[in-house]
Each structure stands twice: as C-alpha cells, then as structure tokens.
Amino acid sequence: MLLPLACLAFISDSGAPEQWLRLPSGASAIPLDLIVEEGVQRVRMIGQGLTQDVAGYQRDPKRLFTDMQDICTRHVASASVPEGTNVVVTLMDKEVQFGLSDPSVIQYFESFVIRDGLCALDETEFLH
C-alpha cells in the first residue's frame, strides 16, 4: 500500500506536525511517501542539497546514518509501527518511482528494525 507521507504527521521537537524536517546534520528533507508491506515500512524522503553534499554525507557517513535514524525515529513516533517491523529509509535528491533506478539521482538507503520502540540498525541486511 502506497501512502503519501505528506499527509502523515511527522512530529517536530515542538510536538507540532511539520512538512519539512530539519535533520541533526542541519540538512532538510520533505516526506515523499510511505510504502507499507507485510513486515516492512518504507519511508521515502527528498533531501535538499544532496547533489552538493551540503550535509557532508560523503565526508562523514556517520552524519548520514544519524539523519536516517532520526527519520526512522520520527516515523515511529508519528505512526503505529509494530515491534519487529523493518523500516527502510530512503533519502534521495529527487523523486524516483518506487522499484526503479535512475543513475542521475542520488539515493541513500538504510534499513532499521523496531526493537523496544526504537530504530536499531538492521544488521541482517549485511548478511544478504
């Protein structure tokens, strides 16, 4: 099931819903959509300045991971996400139809699993 994330309330630090998210790195991202499948929720976001590496992801991949985990955490806080669910976060510089690739688009992916209500790195993804 494909849902527009723009209609889902991501929660800001003030507790108010917002459309643009300010990420820990200082970068901004806007929700694109949410794809819900059995056992997995895919949160797709458009990030500002990815082509210019404004957030410094290429210099420091930990910044990217922190931002991706923040997106996952906000998703879990704003939706009912069952324990053990995989949450795959995609951050891209422009929209790409789900399931397709476009070599002209920067896309970052990270997979998390919900444990004790928190977003933990899904280490099983590294085994595939």
Number of helices: 1
- Specify Rg, calculated over alpha carbons: 14 Å
Fraction in beta strands: 35-45%
Q: What's the rounded overall pLDDT mean?
A: 85
Q: What is the overall shape?
A: globular
**Which regions contain 5 or more consecutive residues with pLDDT less than 50?**
none
Series of H and E elements: EEEEEEHEEE
Structural class: mainly beta
Major sheet details: 7 strands, mixed
InterPro entries: DUF6497
Pfam families: DUF6497
Task: Characterise the protein shown here.
InterPro entries: DUF6497 (IPR045467). The protein has one domain. 14% of the residues lie in helices and 37% in strands. The protein has one helix at residues 61-78, and strands spanning 2-4, 10-11, 17-18, 21-22, 28-37, 40-47, 86-92, 107-115, 118-121. Strands 1, 4, 5, 6, 7, 8 and 9 form a 7-stranded mixed β-sheet that branches. It has a two-stranded antiparallel ribbon with strand order 2-3. A hairpin with a 2-residue loop joins strand 8 (107-115) and strand 9. The chain is globular, with a radius of gyration of 14 Å.
